[in-house]
Amino acid sequence: MTQTNSLAGLRRWRRLLDPSTLVLLVLASALILLVGLPLFKLLSLSVLGPNGLTHDPLMTAFGRLRHLEALGRSLYIGVAVAIISTMVGVPMAWLVSRSNMPGRNFVTLTVVATFVMPPYLGAVAWMLLGGPNAGWINRAWEFLGAETKLLNIYSMEGIIFLIALYSIPFNFIFARSALDVVSSELEDAASILGASRFVTTIKITLPMIWPAILGGAIIALLESITLFGTPALLGIPAGITVATTQLWQFFEFPPRLDAAAAYSMALIAVTVLLLWMQRWFLRRKSFTAMTGKGGERRPVDLGRWRWPAFAACMTVAAMAVFLPLIVLLQAAFAKAWSRGFSFSNLTLANFDYLLFKNSSAIGSIWNTFWFSAVAATAAVAIALIVAYAQARRLLPGTGLLQFLCMVPIAIPGIVLAVAFYATFAPPPFALYGTAAMLILAFMIRSLPVAFINAAATVKSLNPEMEDAVRILGGSRATVMRKVVVPLTKGGLIGSWLLVFIAATRELSTAIFLTGPKTKVMSIVMLDLSEEGNFEVLSALGVLLLATAWIVVWVGQRVAGRDFMLRRP
Amino acid sequence: MTKWKTLTPLAAVLWLGGTVAVFAQTMSDTTKALYQAAKKDGELTWYVSHFGLDNATAVEQAFYKKYPGIKVNVVRATAQVIYQRLNQDILANTQVADVYSSTDNAHFVRLKADGRLLSYRPENADKVLPIFQNMDPDNQYHATSGAIIVIAYRSDKISAADAPKSWTDLLDPRFKGKLSFGHPAYSGFVGAWAIALEKKYGWSYFEKLRANNPQVGRSINDVITMLDAGERSVGHAGDGPFRKKEIEGAPYRTVFPEDGSVVILAGSGILKTSKRPNAAKLFMDFLLDVEPQQIRVDMDMGMPLRPEVKNVRGGKMPNEVNTIPVTDDDLKGLPALNERWRSTFGG
């Protein structure tokens, strides 16, 4: 009796000492440290003073009407952006996925390009395009004989327009991956019963992909309330403060880290509420039609609307990518962007300055790409291990690991930066100014996306092959190396690319965490914009886009053109 | 301030190439000893707002040329942003900056009161023009840059007769939708300017200014961008960069306002927490040397602090213009002013 007991005990111990278990334990502690601790720190800062509980930080954060208005404005922008980008992104996704519109692949490509373009870079380009007096578009408008201005980018409408423009990829990607698996059967049934194509689309197709539409809208909303660059560049000149720029103001002298933490709580609360609403909504309805993968799918014939539809998609692409790109290229190769196109105005000096004369610029280019690459690799690796352990039930408590991977989705980038700063800048960690600080922050920020992708990928794996390796005596590590990674390579590279690109454009997370030696391109661009140095800024932007494009191009070769699509 | 900058670092470096040899021979024993000690430090970090990034970079390169082996990490931002960064460092109990240069002297008053600055008198402190000497009697900070804030306008959009002559002229409705300013919560220059005008005319000045719907960027240099773009046509500016454009033939004019320009003496100090005090001291001395002052004139037509540097820009020196005085005590009111500014202008 005692012998069997001790044998069982021994076995349990051996199981715990299994290397794969140890890996999971290390991961769990790391995630608790990196996700749990900063959140706890944030909470304690906002309610604890030197003499115990205090409402002082909350009063500073919310006791002023202006601060509340900034929060309200962010929400307003978020809702408006979600509506607009959904109304543009979903029809575009439908056209690409379900119609015979010409140039569908090209449209997808322009959406990828929109995603690669950092929103603040788009904002800089639009300062030159949409300035009320000197912007190219207004000047063209005037040239056509108009008396009034067409648009003023330095306004609430301008900010909403711009953020919506760069949110379209979220709506597009979500809707398209859902539309791609909806079969035509139900639509056919509706047609047979006499419904028009329009009615069928509105009443049958769209309801079937509601979860995806809602998911895209919520991501667009969340992204826009956490955006920092666009409101800083366009809002400040227009006298418009939003939650993120307000949060930044708490760091002005005298810095109020506690008030910033308390204010961050509101942003987290909004995020959690939204995500909860989404789940609640989705639980109430069943969307079983989504699972009908086997059905036939036929493109809808647009008839004479084929080309107008394509033209509409191209208009969006022109606003998001083509025009900004032209402006950025013009400025990057100009002695003075305000002088416009002319041979005498052409120069390579801006690139020469960036690459050879300015130590912080060249450093930031290098930093951006290696930080992003390390962060993406770490995030994808952690996500894969956790998703795998969860799917194969390797250990009790993997649910907690999964939860920790998903929590950062509720933490806006700038809040994550505040929390990281408060937690890891002071001793004992003293990570302020180190590369580790940024890499860890980028990694945590992108963990949810990596995890969603990894979970979907692992789900598609049949465990039999892994069992075969185990039966033949291979360890879990061997299984990972020889079976899981090779089989999921495509998906992993796709999610690596997503995380990598998101990290290269990260501004809000970096803003409180960079030191003199760990500057990233987004921060250097913000500094340059502050000086009105658009030529050099544009040149740096062009370098960022060119490099990101090369990475995407290589990635598409390896992972397939649709690497951005989330396959359920 | 972007057009000429691409060529001038090169010019500055060439110019320095010729002078470095001479300077090397004239290096004093104190400086030689300091340089030897600084070599062990190997580098330093310089938080700077009183030069633009390109100007700061040129200074960094000139320093490296003169004192090989000591690298300067330049961190450039507007005054309040760089101060925010410094305070973040202090709050996090980490030491990043060794030398701190700001256009807002209230920062130095505050840092000094908190005992964060090292008292150090560089050899070159006695060699600058008398008006720039002894900014702080305890030698915790020294004037390393100077500028005069003036009115700037585009002469192709506003006739000389219509041009503003004083700050109060800007309140005239004829400038509605044409004005551009920086933001006092970001820029030290603008902070001092706003303090001066509030002192002279009271807050109502800004309320009237608001009625003219000005565009408020961050840096005072944002004004130049907006004027360059043709987005706006009148604003405030440091006189150097504008004069340079004017001389180069751009349709720009600068006006020393009748009711007074605002003079900025911008300082630099060494932080007590610096782990590279010798490099910091050497750099501090260098900031008051001839080279950075020459770079300043070459790149931005800034005001030279050293008599050796010719004031080719044709600009005026602080003692030659009518000014609205701003004391360090006045500047302490800046956080409160920023609050009011935001209530009036937003941003």
Q: Would you mind describing this structure in some detail?
A:
The complex is a heterodimer of chains A (568) and B (347). Chain A is an all-alpha fold and 568 residues long. Chain A is 73% helix and 1% strand. Chain A is built from 25 helices and 2 strands. In chain A, strands 1-2 form a two-stranded antiparallel sheet. In chain A, helix 2 (19-47) crosses helix 18 and helix 6 crosses helix 8 (156-179). By secondary structure, chain B is α/β, with parallel strands linked by helices. In chain B, strands 1, 2, 3, 4, 5, 6, 7, 8, 9 and 10 form a 10-stranded mixed β-sheet that branches. The longest helix of chain B is centred in the first third of the chain and has 19 residues, at 8-26. Chain B is globular and about 60 Å long. Mean pLDDT of chain B is 88; it is low at 1-7 and 17-24. Chains A and B meet through helix 12, helix 16, helix 24 and helix 25 of A and helix 3, strand 2, helix 4, strand 7 and helix 8 of B. Chain A: Belongs to the binding-protein-dependent transport system permease family.
Order of helices and strands of chain A: HHEEHHHHHHHHHHHHHHHHHHHHHHH
Report the total helices of chain A: 25
Order of strands, main sheet of chain A, comes to 1-2
**CA(first)-CA(last) distance of chain B:** 24 Å
The oligomeric state is heterodimer
Low-confidence stretches of chain B: 1-7, 17-24
Give the biggest beta sheet of chain B: 10 strands, mixed
Uncertain ranges of chain A = 288-293
The helix tally of chain B amounts to 13
Q: Which descriptor suits the 3D outline of chain A?
A: globular
Q: What's the alpha carbon Rg of chain A, rounded to whole Å? A: 25 Å
The residue fraction in helices of chain A comes out at over 70%
| CATH H-tier superfamily of the largest domain in chain A | MetI-like
Write down how many β-strands of chain B occur, each being a DSSP E stretch of 2 or more residues: 10
